[in-house]
Amino acid sequence: MKISVIGGTGLIGSKLVKKLGEHGHEAVAAALDSGVNTLTGEGLADALKGASVLVDVTNAPSWEDTAVLKFFETSTRNLLAYGADAGVGHYVALSVVGTERLLESGYFRAKLAQENLIKASSIPYSIVRATQFFEFVKQIADYSTEGNKIRLPPALIQPMAADDVASALARIATNSPVNGAVEIGGPEQFRLDELVRRYLTAFQDPREVISDPHGRYYGIQVSEKALVPNDDARLGETRFEDWLNQSTKHAPKTDRLLPVSPLAAGVSAAPKLNSGGE
Ligand SMILES: NC(=O)c1ccc[n+]([C@@H]2O[C@H](COP(=O)([O-])OP(=O)(O)OC[C@H]3O[C@@H](n4cnc5c(N)ncnc54)[C@H](OP(=O)(O)O)[C@@H]3O)[C@@H](O)[C@H]2O)c1
Q1: Taking CB atoms and a 6 Å cutoff, what residues make up the pocket around ligand 1?
Q2: Ligand 1 mean position to 57 CA, how many Å?
Q3: Is there a contact between 170 and 23 (Cβ–Cβ < 8 Å)?
C-alpha cells in the first residue's frame, strides 16, 4: 500500500515513515525539503500519485494567530483537493486532544479549523487526536519561563512518547477510515507543574517551577481536565520515567544549559513544537 506522509521529515513524520516501511508499506515522505509545499500545492500531485492513504503530520512554522490559521486552512484545503484528484481513499490527520477546550489559543483555533475542513470533505478520514508529546515538555517549560522561574498550573496532563504517537498513526493509517476522531494518550497522568519539575531535575536544569493555579499552559488558562483524553483513548506503552532515562543518557551537554526564555526575550509567537533536540 502506498502511503504519502506529508510532513514526513518532522518529529512524528520521520518515525511514521520508518515504521510503515518496516511493515512492508511504500511510505513516501513529502515536505518542503523534498520540493512539496502544501501552501502552494507545488509537488503535491506527484507526491500523492497512486497513494491509497494520505497522512498529514505537517506543522506551521509560525504560531502567530493569523499565520497559523492561514497555514492550517490553506494547507488542508490544498491537501484535500489534491488528495481527491489522486483518488486517495483515507485521509489521516494528527490533531490535539482537547482542541475544543483550548480555543483561547490561536494555535488550537487553527487546529479546529483543520479538523472541520476534513470533516466537511468527501474523502473518508480519521482524525487522530494525541496528547502532548514527552518531547514537547521542554517547550512548555521554556514558554512559561521568566528569569529562573516557571509558573505553571497543576492541571492534569497525560503525555506520550512521539514514538508511540507514530505507532498509533501507523496502525490507524493502515486500517479503515473511522470517519471521526480517535484519541491517543500516554499510560500515566501527571500534574503539569510536577511533570515539568521531573523533566528539569532529570536534565539538571536549575530553573524552579512555581505551582500556580493561575499559571498558563502555552500562554492560555486551562481547566483541570482540559488536556486529558477520554476514557476510551488508546494508550501508548512508554512511561515518562523510562523515556527520561533514555533521553538524558543520549542528550548532548548543551541540552542541560538554561535556555533563553521566550517571555523574557519578548517573543510573542510560540516556537515550533519539537525544537527540543532530546
Ligand atoms: N507537540 C505535541 O505535543 C503535539 C500533540 C498533539 C498533536 N500534535 C500535532 O502533531 C503534528 C506534527 O507535529 P511535529 O512536531 O511532528 O511537527 P514538526 O516536527 O515541526 O514537522 C513538521 C513537518 O511539516 C513540514 N512542513 C511544514 N510546512 C510545510 C509546507 N508548507 N509544505 C510541506 N511540508 C511542510 C516540515 O517540513 P520541513 O522540515 O521541510 O520544513 C516537517 O516535515 C502537528 O500538526 C501538531 O499539531 C502535536
Answers
A1: 7, 9-13, 31-33, 36-39, 57-59, 94, 96, 111, 130, 132-133, 136, 272-274
A2: 5
A3: yes
pLDDT in tens, the chain (278 residues): 999 999 999 999 999 999 999 999 999 999 999 999 999 999 999 999 999 999 999 999 999 999 999 999 999 999 999 999 999 999 999 999 999 999 999 999 999 999 999 999 999 999 999 999 999 999 999 999 999 999 999 999 999 999 999 999 999 999 999 999 999 999 999 999 999 999 999 999 999 999 999 999 999 999 999 999 999 999 999 999 999 999 999 876 555 444 433 333 333 333 333 333 32
Would you give the DSSP letter of residue 128?
E
- SS3 state at 151: strand
Taking the C-alpha atoms of residue 228 and residue 183, their distance in angstroms, rounded to an integer, is 10
